[in-house]
Amino acid sequence: MRKQALQSLLAGIQADLQAYDTLAALLERQFSAVLQHATALLADLGDEITATCEALEMRRSERVGLVDALMAETGAPAAERMEQVLAALPQPYREAAEKAWATLGERIRHCKTLNERNCGQLLVQHELMMQVLAPQGETYAPR
C-alpha cells in the first residue's frame, strides 16, 4: 500500500508539472486574446483553462489524501507532511522528488503571476469600456 501510494503521489506531481506548463501556455494565449479583444477565443481558452484547473485540483486533493494517509500518524502539521514524505524516500528518489516538488511550486507561482497579469489587463479594459459607455459628467459641457 505504501509503495503504491508513493508511486501515485510522485506520478501526480509529474502530471501536475506537465499540466502547469499547459496552463502557462494557455494563460499566455489568453493574454494575447485579451489584447486583441478576441472574445470567441477568450471563451474557448476559458473553457480549456477551467478544465486544466479542475484536473490540477483533483490531483492536489488526491495528493493531500495520500500524504495524510502516509504521514497522519506522525502528528505533524499538514503543511509539513509533504516534506516528511519526501525526506523519507531513499536516494536517489528523494533528490529527484524534492526537485520535482520545488519545480512544481515555481510553476504554480509563475501561473499565478500570469493569471494576475491577465486579470489586471481585463480590469483595465473593462474600466476603459465603462468610461466610454457611461461617461461621468458632461464631456463637452462648457466650464
Characterise this structure.
This protein has 143 residues and is mainly α. The chain has a single domain, classed as Methane Monooxygenase Hydroxylase, Chain G, domain 1. It is 83% helix and 0% strand. It has helices at residues 2-36, 39-71, 78-87, 93-133. The longest helix is centred in the C-terminal third of the chain and has 41 residues, at 93-133. It starts with a helix and ends in a 10-residue tail after the last helix. The model has no long low-confidence stretch (mean pLDDT 91).
Tally the helices: what do you get? 4
Q: What is the tally of beta strands?
A: 0
Low-confidence stretches: none
Helicity range of the residues? over 70%
Mean pLDDT: 91
CATH architecture: Up-down Bundle
Report how far apart the termini are. 79 Å
Question: Briefly, what CATH class?
Answer: Mainly Alpha
Q: Which fold name fills CATH's third level, the topology? A: Methane Monooxygenase Hydroxylase, Chain G, domain 1
Oligomer: single chain
The outline comes out as elongated
| Radius of gyration, CA atoms, in whole angstroms | 22 Å
Biggest sheet descriptor: none
Q: How many individual domains?
A: 1
What structural class do the secondary elements suggest? mainly alpha
Range of strand content: under 5%
- H/E topology pattern: HHHH
